[in-house]
């Protein structure tokens, strides 16, 4: 039974996307098992570029389940769980460099070793840019979607006022007696209006059960070591900046990042009416922008 048959409010395009099942896999990167999912290209030879989709903080690869299949008409598309998130293993500490290495390792595991397009939402956009800096021979195009941008002065101010530590954010997850109880407590950060059928899907993929009960699928300590300024991709990498009108990306900083690429390798668009979690409230508008960046013309 399809999603539209169980819930008539679900539009056909979304149900069809979820019915396009990815292939799931895992690989070990620096002693942590990383989970990923792949949608293979469905139409002819298509575009040789592969795409990796990177979720934001406290999220998981399933946030892209309705986006990946759409892009997979003409591209091989991969989404993965950053370590400390989703079905990937936790680490003792997290850095953007290590997440960037996970990204490139996942791409290589599915046969994408160059000409890689990376699309990152929120914190995932920072991971995408870091991957372009660390692996310029692999990453040729980056799209950041409403990523909060920090410079060295921002980091210094945060450290001065006390950066998050594992004593402030206990690592032990909060647990619930039932799955329904956990899902009833699901919240976005920042909170915003979303399309309920998409929110329900990502929420369902956000909980798991262990021997102590139901818990969220992320390590609450992951922000404690993330104190690096925003990296800037090298000139060899194109940069597309997608800002949500009501999101967290400061418009002046987005413009400054765009203007810093005087060679014309950067683009900047604002999605009207969108909140920070763009794929949950403006998914078709986001898809249109991604297709434009990719040079695709899909109906």
TrEMBL record:
UniProt GO molecular function: hydrolase activity
InterPro entries attached to this UniProt entry: AB_hydrolase_1 (IPR000073), AB_hydrolase_fold (IPR029058), AB_hydrolase_sf (IPR050266), Epox_hydrolase-like (IPR000639)
Keyword Nucleus (UniProt): no
Recorded GO CC terms: membrane
AB hydrolase-1 domain residues: 51-289
One protein family per Pfam: Abhydrolase_6
The keyword Hydrolase is annotated on this UniProt entry: yes
Keywords: Hydrolase
PANTHER family found in the cross-reference section: HYDROLASE, PUTATIVE (AFU_ORTHOLOGUE AFUA_2G14860)-RELATED, MONOACYLGLYCEROL LIPASE
UniProt protein name: Alpha/beta hydrolase
